[in-house]
Records
---
Amino acid sequence: MQLKLKVWRQDGPEAPGRFETYDAVDIKPDMSFLEMLDVVNNRLVEAGGDPITFDSDCREGICGTCGVMIDGQAHGPWKGAATCQLHMRAFRDGDTIVIEPWQAAGFPIVKDLMVNRASFDAIVSSGGFISADTGAAPDANEIPIPKPVADSAMDAAACIGCGACVAACPNSAAQLFTSAKLAHLNLLPQGQAERFKRTEAMVETMEQFFGSCTNHGECHEACPKEIPLDFIALMNRDYLKSKLKNRKLAGQVFP
Amino acid sequence: MTATQDRPAGAGATRPEAARINKPVRHRSIPLLDLYQTAVGKKWVMAITGIALMGFVFAHMFGNLKMYFGPADYDSYAEALKTIAYPFLPKTMVLWLFRVGLLVFFALHIHSAYSLTRMNHRARPTKYSRRDYIAANFAGRTMRWTGIIVALFLLWHLADLTFGLGNPDFVYGQVYNNVVTTFDRWPVALIYVIANLALGVHLYHGTWSIFQTVGSMNPHFNPMRNPVRRGFAAGFTIVVIGANISFPLAVQFGIVGG
């Protein structure tokens, strides 16, 4: 396969960005998108040029490190796949592919296609945990959890924090990420003790970095783990409750 | 029992490399007052005022159907609006309560939309050179424009049929006459039809969005792909806008006042 790449190049966070065009030759349809970039970078280095900087780690869709806008879609045209899981057979010989970094004020560009996602860490560290005693691990099935609840919490926990939801959102909103991180704890018994404190802190931290939700649903379409929008509804509900509930009564079984 | 280690809220929030899109929330003694400082809180305000305004737009449409019953019925309906709950309450009191309430709802709906729009523009300073939308539809992406069209139309509508500006045949209190004489001019009828189409597009996205914003996620009511929400939004929009558009058309074709 022979392709043309239109790639966003930016020397640093403050530097102005520009598009540069590269030829990708000898690309095989069974290469992953990142392998294709590796091939292009090898040629760039051999020719004495500056390779295209991009993030990647596990290359099997579970770490959430990679991610670029490919032809105007976060992680490219395949649904439910991260950039590393996208293969070159998704494209046709002779195509021109536009590659851009995630664009959001909350994700400053480090270099080229690599962005700084420290704002996600700030959201999680403000409440995305449970406080537990140290010591021997408790028995795994000590607390009964209904199967639909466990399934739903597991769906939320599938979030790998890649940032595609923010990148795909016209408002650079991180509602799908934050709501998934909230839901996987707020749905389970272990998450109840800090539920409203957590919701309040994580929503308010999120809003210092990202925009607001306009219910388009682009985030769900872009998400490599296909996290449903229902978690955003749950977050909206829990956030209002965090402001309304009498937390002195939060230990009651029927709140 | 649990050794809770209190971590600072929003640890790392002050990292210099990250942009500040919204100011940190200043917590008040009454937590409910914190809400309007946050985008999620503003969306709640937008949803609740949206529900109230939907109620108004429906009642407005329903009441105006009286014009198909003739001048006597229509004028007496307009008169009756001034005497709701009379003689328990003074005349026009309920009407004024509605008017003040509507003004407050409009003000909150527009202010929350304005401030969220500003926030969203700050959050995406650099646009993509190419963007393929998959889920975002026309209605959702034009909310701001249809909202502005509806707001401008509202000012015109008040001037036209409440204050009687620009209609030489306007007579205070003769509602049927005023409606017929204003809709008889085709450019006016056209403005009403276009503005109502914009309102319809706005209502469709707004109505189904309300379910999401107020946290409706019960699978019994929201099965996959949300046919219930979408169906309700489409049905409500078609009923309200269909009837609203029929009024200027009925006058134009001589069905009303002909």
---
Amino acid sequence: MIVIYTLVFPGALFALTVGMLGWWLERKVSALVQHRVGPPWYQNFADVFKLMGKESIVPEKSTVFLYIASPVAAVTAAISLAVLVGMPVFLNTNFAGDIILIIYTMALGSAAIFLGAAASSNVYAGIGAGRELKMLLADELVFVMVLLVPIIRSGFGLNLKEIIIATPALFSVSGVIAYVVGLLAIQAKLAIQPFDIAEAETELAGGVEIEYSGVLLGLWKMTKAVHFFVFPMLLTVLFFGVPSSLSLVRYLWFLLFYVVTLAILIVIKNVNPRATIQGVLGFFWKRLSLLAFAAVVLAILGV
Amino acid sequence: MPTDYNLPVGPFHPLLEEAEFFKIKLDGEVVADIEMETGWMHRGIEKISEESTFDQSIFAVERICGICSASHPFACVNAFEDIDDIDIPLRARYIRSLVGELERIHSHLLWLGLAGHFIGYDTLWMWAWKYREPILEIIEKTTGNRNHYAMFRIGGVRRDFAPSLSDELNEKLDTVARKLTMVTKAAMDDPVLKSRLSGVGVLTKEAAIDYCAVGPTARASGVAIDVRKDEPYAAYDLVDFEVVVQEGGDVFAKTVVRILEVFESIKIIRQCIKALSKTGGAIFNDAKSISAGEGIGRHEAPRGEVFHYIRSDGSNRPVRHKIRAPSYVNIPTYKASCVGENLADVLITLAAVDPCYCCTERSVKMQDENGKELTESLLKRSQDKTEELIRELGEYEAWRYL
């Protein structure tokens, strides 16, 4: 059974499909905002499919093992994350582990990006790797505090299945604050504007991914696609909750608020220029962490 | 990983529309030093012009740059007319100014879009370029082409402005002005953009004067120079417009200067269209020949003053044609504005002078005080190579290959 969970639903196949459609939605809506036509719905599938048939060039001076292992680790971590979050949401089943495990698995993805970039021994990737690490330091603390709010609201349970069927955290002041802060943290985790500073096309020419090609680049794309599914989903179910019984209503409920969350992310993306790394560190540590902390305090006070 | 290393930006990089090489020495994320290497876009335009007849060289210099393809011929005909003091009919003067200003609008909008793209603000990029499109349509209606207008000839212009276009042009300008006000609001009043660009890459007034910066780069640093006002040519002394000056010197000030200049240009174009409906007469004085002598021509291109020097010996070709594009003096200001800044800020600062590398690249010979050559002359290398080919293959065969 676990094989089906991991490979089909809600794991690899499902997460990739929904993630790529979510990613396509982001690209398409951005294009419409910018008076462009935008890609067809299957563009991301076609991209990854094509990359799978291409040669992966490994740079001569790179650390070969890390260079190859990093994208594999990243996509594995992303799919595990999809399973860990997806099982309680879609199947109402529990897994051996709680929200702490989810936090660890999330950090693993960023660590893999950092290692892969550092292993490729390219100066652009090197700068990108440094930025990725700083980004992780910036958004991780905030995101953990954001996760604490629904945990506190649902009575200090760390079990995701119980958190999501409790009263939605958004019905409180602390929940609203945490959701807004969480949106920005998700934006940073997905590395879309204004937080695409580790890739920064016009500065670092792709940054962390610059040396990757073929199958390995396809793995990075798949990681990104799964992230497009998992991160907004996690935020959605934690703050909007889901109906307690497993039915079609539950799936539609989830779909509705997943799209809402994604739409807000897309709007933020399209009205902001790329931030600088100092700006991001300052923004997350000085402003958002205070806000998130205030939300945690408010949640403890029961507001 | 060492803490200081060189980041090569170029010769091919998403930041640069053209091939150019910046060697950025980084200390962490802070830029310690920048070196620039030129020579990637050299095409020997001056030599081509010197081998062409006067009429041909106007077309040759038009090909220097696709964006400012009215600026170089404008300055070039100014230089030719300076040799013989040729008079230009009033109607032609208005048409010249009209084309010059249309080009300024489309060039500034192009820059605004690119700047948006460079700082990762793709919405601004696409919007600015969308509203550049009606301007290009106006240019096509007026001159017959979207780029490379071929409007200029010695003594006037090649193509008359049809009076029937006036209404349509005014209408399109209205639309563009309205849309631009919206883009301006999105760009200038946006707190995020303001905080991203304010105080970035400051070029002080002293540094701008020291580096002889021209155009919007200088005007954003509080130096009010504009050839159109300082030494009017064409119809610029007959129309009413302001020279936009900002004191900030940072990238935001440069953006503001360019956006406000677009509105000034729209003002000039409206006045030109109005004047053209009242002014009749010929559009050129036929100049049969150019006598021996020297002439200089200047024009306020979108990026600043472009300068052409022409020496004629009474034949039908220029003996010497020297071109100095505005980017030639604007690009080196990176020495004053970039060192010590963060990488992300430096890259937008490099782009903020609106550099045009193919305009800039002239073959130069650098000598020290004793007359010893410091750099290899590109022209000499090219001539040596040609001679070597001729020696190896024989003249007939070599010319077949060239």
